[in-house]
Amino acid sequence: MSMCLSLIMIHKLFNKVFDKHPKAVFFTCMDSRMIPSRFTQTNVGDMFIVRNAGNIIPHSHHFMGEVTMNEPAALELGCVVNDIRHIIICGHSDCKAMNLLYKLKDSTFSSKTNRQLSPLRAWLCNHAHTSLEKYHQLELCGTNRPLMFSSELPLKKFAAYIDPEKKWSVEDRLSQVNTLEQLANVASYNFLKRRLESHQLHVHALWFDIYTGDIYYFSRQNKRFVEINEFTVDSLSDEVSRYYS
Ligand SMILES: [Zn+2]
Hints:
- The chain contains ten helices and eight strands.
- By secondary structure, the chain is an alpha/beta fold.
- It has a six-stranded mixed sheet with strand order 2-1-3-6-7-8, with helices on both faces.
- Strand 1, helix 2 and strand 2 form a beta-alpha-beta unit.
- Belongs to the beta-class carbonic anhydrase family.
């Protein structure tokens, strides 16, 4: 699917639910090949964008000691101060941070000494170890069985088939797992709980294939990432409207 068509489709997908300005707080990776305003066809004033290595939102327990504050501060600025109603977490293929995270399975590679030498290893070990653990479950169970994710609310737990068609690399599968794992981290912040529970705030997961320009939306109905294209956009749009209205 062409990049141009992807842009039209993603605009159509979110058009029904995004009626405010700014429309979303968008968390994605700092990778230079990711240009969020381009592949979401958004303009000046549309989105608050937060970027880091691996599109990670640290769990709130890291915030308790006032150690990690950038991402939670961004959530508060976007969702509380500016009353933005949608959070989008977007991962991508060939993510260098996820490639490194996959290597951190090795206990020597992720040793305390090595973490102290590498802020990137320390960042990933501290904040993405749950993604790695979840990925380990996928390796044990296989891609034909769904993984359970705790989601942004206890009642919204969901199942996800990761790469049931076996078309992605192990690192890309880990990237998809990591993207979904961030939904629970969003909900760990007390200042967002009431908004999430009263359906004033919604969390979406996207995944971007940087080589083809294809964009995938995580469909809770289909329990998998579904490519947004001319054949899927209407049903995805209905799902988004139904689920998030
Ligand atoms: Zn990346």
